[in-house]
């Protein structure tokens, strides 16, 4: 590699690891991403260790585990004061760094090391409350909303569909497709490619909001799914509908619908958003080709977390189940790094968002094995027998649903910290977590081993989750540092 490669990082929001054509999904059509996968490496066991929008992005941009970046749950308006960030380190390596789309940091307009940010964080309640300072209000600081109102009038808003940013209710986008935020991100990425400095390598983070709700795909894409017989949600033998009646809401929904028609509409709209996203990514790839940049550009796809999508009667994320924490991670066009012969390869090593920063630095010729919890995945791609970790520890502060978990490429152990309930799933035989085998006598030795790993991870934590011998339930998470 005689010169530094360009890096196109396609970051999505709430995209399940299984909801892609190349991942084997029976319903979802993603022809452009499938093409990228055929020319690259698919990490099939990629996870988000703290699966929510803010915490996942902290891991992504710092290369640190949740207990070290101090984001062990979701909390708005906590300052991002990190010594090293993905964009900042790549700037030091000689890159022009730009993010188009979602950042979800605080302060809202913090650049976190980027040379430029063209911002759209999506519909955010925390940025719309009456007591939010004007300079932090979404209509003041979000570039997409400025543009939308300029194009369609002062009253135009992404909420004109009547959908909430965490709701499973679905309907078509109410304006022309060209005004959809997915198109807007692509449009601005194309504009950057046109205006870039041709003598400087770039790191372009195309940070799409979708398929995060509102579930508002353009009509064309919804029509592709709404009339089809779609795969039903996966319901484990360990779950009941009891908590839906207690906690189910449309605003800020934690649980999914139980009406079959609404379930179908939810899933159809989610899949439609993915196909729409795929086609817009296709526009981006074609632009690389037309600007004669494709051969010199590493292309990477990931998501901050997944989406339960009705599995186990759940909706959204933050929980330790596959729909929530299993994410896509795809590296394409590795030839830009001088790495040959990996087209169409699938690697089942357990990897996490924290691994992307050290991987990008390695690709840029600035390897750093000292400052990050993550590791460079180039080593794993060059030697698929290499294992970056024996297991991954995940967690999420979530009130009565607070959880700690250990996952390997074969199985998962879950501990619910409030109740002390434990779960064990053999992911090889049961990838959708239908059968909780925590009481299966044949699994007890393995469960004991995974529990001991969790105890080791939690030793010394201020919450007092363990005394070093057993797990202690009912211990509250401490507050995040402002």
From TrEMBL:
Organism in which the protein naturally occurs: Candidatus Aphodenecus pullistercoris
Record bears the keyword Nucleotide-binding: no
Record-linked Pfam families: Sulfatase
Name of the protein in its database record: Arylsulfatase
Domain Sulfatase N-terminal: 5-365
Keywords: Hydrolase, Metal-binding
EC number in record: 3.1.6.1
GO cellular component, one term: cytoplasm
